[in-house]
Amino acid sequence: MNPVREKSFNLSELGRTLPSVTRKQRMDPLLEKIFNLSDADRAECAKHVMLGGGTRGGPVIVRGEGIRLYDTTGKSYIDCTSQSWAMYLGFANEAINRIVAEHMQSLSHVHQGFDTLPRYYLARKLAQLAPGDLNRVSFTVGGGPAIEAAMKIAYKNTQPSRDFICLYDSYHGTTLGTMGASWISTRSAGKLAGGSRFLGLTRPFIRVPNPYCYRCPLGLSRENCSLACAQALRVTLEKGIAGNVAGLIVEPIQASGGQIIPPKEYLQAVRRICDEFGVPLIFDEIQTYARIGRFFAAEYFDVTPDIIVLGKGFGAGLPIAAIIISDRLTGFEQDGEELHTFANSSVGQVAAAKQIELLENGILDNTAQMGEYLRARLEEMRNEFPEMGDIRVAGLHVGIEFVRDPRSKEPLNAEGKAIRDEGIKLGVIFGLAGVRTNVLKIKPPLIVTQAECDEILDKLRSAMTRVLRR
Ligand SMILES: Cc1ncc(COP(=O)(O)O)c(C=O)c1O
Asked: Are residues 377 and 345 located together in one domain of the fold?
């Protein structure tokens, strides 16, 4: 049964298709040289590349089209990671390419201190879309710096204050200001990972239990927990902190930590508690923006934070991030409080604005519909694979938590990774959640069609059969 109707809009009209020119015809000789590097050249060049994260040794990617990437051998991969969850409109999106190329003919980099029309336009558009009185926008260069910008605003508005609170299993970046809030600084991956090496430089965050109902950190079950995790926040505010709290940072859906979707009532309780204690509530919407089938998780959960942070997919693949703050908060002053060379990327702003236009014209609806389609099909598949212990879906935020047995919930850590590896062999790139490796993430570009969802699910079934039934 197909519970979701096919979309009534035409994706090619939404700028999905590539122009039919071949790349070779218009290739710059330097590009030709780069894209013709021999295997030996590549091995030599690789010695000079230093990475602080990610897994190396996978396919070498040369191009993308729609939801697919292609490697040096011509093999294609459906990308269910949207490359760090950032390519909402897929690869080589014609509408984005066209507007960026046209805009680059006249303007690219402009110092933050000069006003530009793209910045005016995008700031007003975001204020119109954002919930409540969140009306002022500051742009920056990436997710970590945007979280730090939000922290600066929250801190300014709560003086005297010092401490920030975040949730167990959260991820807010790897800058020195945010790393202490990310799970990679804790033992939650079963070992002390990268973030822990910089403890002398990073700031400590106070952590409170997260609403991970499938594996409640407080050992409770949703039926009779009375939202004890929200109560833990209250007790921490009452007794666990000296003085005012500078802010609470929350991912409305914990993505990197395991695709953990909170009950709506949890976020609503958090809002009430923050109001009671005068704590600015910061929603890190770096992963939820648009991917949830609404522009903001704030709408999805019916909770208005004081500050929203955007990054990743916000710029349709270009590096741009933003914070949107409530009118009740004192904003930045122009005396060097927040200054970055590339914080006024007019190219990123134009791309972000074009993407909003496309999202409003069908892609947000597609996101919600394809998410529900995947949910229904995955739930059917669970009859065949009871190891799919928990299926968590909100728009195209899709996570499957693998367990040996649905009653014991023993995590299938090695198997989660093995399913991902089989996927690569089969031509699909799945994500893995960071805290445990037993949560498989299916987060394709938001332009994915129903036929492509079927293809993803077929490959998933083959990968699960190979790993779980061998
Ligand atoms: C929820 C969330 N916040 C913050 C960040 C940090 O963003 P960036 O990697 O652009 O610094 C990420 C990146 O994965 C993220 O997922």
From this structure: no
pTM of the model: 0.94
**Which range of residues forms the domain containing residue 261?**
98-358
Q: What is the mean pLDDT of residues 247-263?
A: 97
Q: 213: which DSSP letter? A: G
Residue 44 confidence class, pLDDT cut points 50, 70, 90: very high
34 and 155 fall within a common domain:
no
Q: Is 257 in the pocket of ligand 1 (CB under 6 A)?
A: no
Mutation test residue for ligand 1: of 82, 87, 171, 251, the one with most atoms within 8 Å of CB:
171
Q: Which atom of ligand 1 is nearest to the CA of 319?
A: 10
Decide: 82 in ligand 1 pocket, CB within 6 A.
no
The whole-number pLDDT of residue 2 equals 34
Ligand 1 atom with the smallest distance to the CA of 256 is 16
Q: Hey, how many other C-beta atoms are within 10 angstroms of the C-beta on 469?
A: 9
Whether 158 and 261 share a structural domain: yes
Task: State whether 311 and 388 are in the same domain.
Answer: no
Cβ within 8 Å of residue 249, ≥6 positions away? 147, 150, 151, 164, 165, 166, 170, 172, 181, 205, 282, 284
Q: Domain of 68: which CATH number?
A: 3.90.1150.10
**22 and 156 belong to one structural domain:** no
311 lines ligand 1 (CB under 6 A): yes
Q: Are the CB atoms for 252 and 285 separated by under 8 Å?
A: yes
